[in-house]
Amino acid sequence: MTSVPEDLICEAVDNAEQVQPDLQAEVADLAKLSPLEYDQVREQKAKGFGVRVGTLDKEVANARPTKENEAKGRAIELHDFELWEQPVRGDEVLDEVREHILRHMVIDEHQADAVTLWAAHVHLFDRFAHSPRLMITAPDAECGKSLLMVHIVGDLIPKPLVTELMKAAPFFRLAEEAKPSYLIDEMDVFIEQDSDLLAAVNNGWEPHGGVLRCIGDDNEVRKFSTHTPVAMAGIELHKKLPATTVSRSVVVHLERAADDELDEDDIYETRKHRVGILETGRRLARWCADAKQEIAGRDPTLPPKVRNRLADKWRPLFAIAEVAGRHWPDRARAALFAQPDLSEPSKGLQLLIDIRDVLDGKARNIATEDLIGMLANLDEAPWANYNFRQRDPEGRRIQPRQLSGLLKRYGIERGTVRAIERPNSAKGYRERDLAQAWKRYLPEESLEKESQSHSSITSTTCVGHMGDTAKKSGTHESACIPSDNGACDPVTPSEGGAQSEGDMTAAEANTAAHSSGWRTRL
Questions:
Q1: 53-90 burial string, b = 16+ CB within 10 Å, else e?
Q2: Which of 148, 174, 255, 431 keeps 20 to 30 A from 57, CA to CA?
Q3: pTM for this predicted structure
Q4: Together in a domain, 51 and 151
């Protein structure tokens, strides 16, 4: 074999070392050209370099100077928990989570239980066949949606990522790479029903969920996973998202807090309260890590008639509740039955304002028929011709079922009342429910007048079946199983009851407290 002289080898190495600097210098010169000038020479230059045109395009793009006003953004940093040092009991840590929610929020205790179980599921979402979405909705602003989702839930779950404007591309790319827990705020502002983001949110509740995209110069088809936890918040979000998203969600319906519903020390402040919530998050993470095999293997017992998608989204929460034990299986069951009925349309504040007007600003028990008659006599109000296609004047009026549906979202439930206009009891609306709704949602200048007219109203205190003592508004609610489309299937309605708080029996007071939507601090 003929040997190559050493001097020739050294010369070849020197030449090779010169190729890379010369090539980079050429790329730098090309990057200085305008897009039009570069397009005229790109194919010829790529051929001369012995590379593909697409490869040269990328190198030139990377070499172009960045404009000073172009924001580069920041890398995504996701917080995860350092597990608590000692073992933790499941029922105790879930109680801690629940107490944080009830302390800082004016929220139905059953919905607080649902949020608690949802937060626990986030630590284990990849162990379940489905990851239910959390939907936090309210009829108006300043109801605590962001506080609950970002500052409380966000500090209890792993890898929270808060955003107020989410597009499909970053959603599925980051879901594939890092599995963050998306907390999408103000979703009602930017979402569209035909958005690609909704498709990703929907199919990502199952492990196989994903989107297909063409990648690279060869347009290689790749699948990106969308399976990751998602919470959403917005005003009347249940109306602005399609039924396919609502049916995959555990729905939390918040109301605006009245001034006297939270003690001063319980109003959330990050510097005072965040440390305690984060510590609870660490304990929750520890219990979930220790119990993950047992929870993942649990086949929980769901109530009768809970099936299909409704069962899919509640099964993980029931599994967590059963493994935690003690009162949590009962709480999970009550939380399911207490899911709000979001199927009715809403006329919002206008109906509350009109009811206040016809009652001269003084809440009282009122029969449904009498209230409809008063509303129908209002000038320039829609209630007399609510069903304008009907020929009969009585048929054109708003009907009892429609009135009930419009008021239900404000916590005003129809029940049996004793009204001053009637000698006997009748179906209608209670003084305390009307007063509370006015106080929450009508202009502030009316609050003083209303509080004077209701100064005799007292709260009923009782010990609930979960062993918690709280003040309750006494609202009676029908037990129901929410259907896949957000409506409720009645199970055991309890519309009867006392005509006023002063007439309530002990049994009725206890029932009222158990079904109450609202809690104030003792």
A1: eeebbebbeeeeeeeeeeeeeeeeeeeebebbeeebeb
A2: 174
A3: 0.60
A4: no
